[in-house]
Design brief:
Blueprint (H helix, E strand, L loop, with lengths): L37 E7 L16 E7 L11 E6 L10 E10 L5 E9 L4 E3 L9 E2 L3 E9 L6 E9 L14 E4 L8
Antiparallel strand pairs: 1-2, 3-4, 4-9, 5-8, 5-10, 6-9, 7-8
Length: 189
């Protein structure tokens, strides 16, 4: 084999002889490039032409395709996200900054990755203390991460909120949840 083709010298095949079998094996790349869901392979048989031209050259090539498993136990991206406020305790009017770390622990690249974070009750988004790529509406902040290669180190992002002042009576904790999604081009997460 060279970089693109494998060759096997079979030798002479007698007219009417039984078919001969040969095995050729390949290992699928790990990590696998984004969007690959099928591996296709073809083989062609040729002779030296010493006995004359092939009677039917159209049947000298055979092909087969193998689907790639996706999802748990198969091939695909696996987005992992962690969130940490550094153990912060804040008062009304105080700033709480979250560090979100996202990585792809799967064996196939993820594309179109996006972080979504629900703005916690009793807070407001603070753009000046957050990574600049965040966009927010009245209830949700979103960050377009883009592509995450399989096995790449975690990427950190900062998202900050200021606690309402005055704070509603009885509020003693701020809860915040973030979600990571991709465009699904590489199969399910």
């Amino acid at each position: 084999c060279d970089a693109s083709t494998c060759t096997l010298a079979v030798g002479a095949l007698g007219a009417g002889d039984p078919a001969q079998s040969f095995t050729l094996a390949f290992v699928v790349d790990d990590p696998l490039a984004s969007g690959v869901s099928l591996i296709s392979n073809s083989a062609t048989a040729t002779d030296d032409g010493a006995s004359g031209p092939d009677l039917n050259a159209a049947d000298n090539t055979a092909a087969d395709s193998t689907p790639i498993d996706s999802g748990p136990g198969g091939t695909g991206p696996d987005l992992l996200i962690t969130k940490d406020d550094g153990g912060a305790t804040v008062d009304a009017g105080g700033l709480v900054a979250y560090t979100l770390r996202i990585r792809n622990a799967g064996n196939q690249d993820a594309t179109g990755v996006e972080l979504t974070d629900a703005i916690p009750s009793h807070t407001s988004f603070v753009a000046a203390s957050s990574d600049p790529a965040w966009t927010c509406d009245a209830s949700t902040c979103t960050l377009a991460v883009g592509a995450l290669g399989a096995g790449d180190p975690a990427q950190p992002f900062t998202l900050a909120f200021v606690v309402d002042d005055p704070l509603a009576s009885g509020v003693s904790q701020i809860s915040n949840t973030a979600t990571a999604n991709d465009d699904g081009a590489s199969g399910p997460d």
